[in-house]
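Support request, please re-run this one:
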Amino acid sequence: EMFGFQRICLAKRGHIISQVINPNFFCVMLIGFSTSKEQHIRFNTLKQVDPLFSVDLSDPEKPKILGKLKIPGFSEYLHFYGEDRLLGIGMSTDEESGVAEGVKITMFDISDRSDVKEESTLVLDDLYGSHAAYDYKSVLADPEKNVIGLSGYSQNGESYYLLTYNRTDRKFETILQEEVNGNTSQGIREI
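Re-run finished. Output below.
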């Protein structure tokens, strides 16, 4: 459902629930709400197979799904990575059983809003989860410097990963993988 701001309360403006099988949204990214007439939203649902939706909100009373991409796993964190890329951090899951297989880092190509593509994926199979799911400040995502940093937890404690994204080869490259002393309830902040 789309809501518009009216003082402190939110008022319903439109909805797309009937077009979405599972209305439990897990991640939402708003695009262009303060700078342009082109207003879009990206969201995904909490499922073992993660549909990533691209929605046109130029008419709030009649939002329109432009495209969707179904991929195994799910994203718990979304972050713009330049004009035409979207970084997703979440979990990789087995398509049949739904069993988690590690932390999944995905680069989506969002240059065509009606045809969002999964450009590259890296699975950190030694991690059980990432702090990005609960603390957005635990992620470093700087497209200008081409650096991605995230922390996660495994059987051996906590680890910090520093990555870069090679647009030419369309793949993530690990710059640093470091075990961090102790387990913290807050996770590790970006460096």
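The two ends are 37 Å apart (CA to CA). The chain is about 0% helix and 55% strand.
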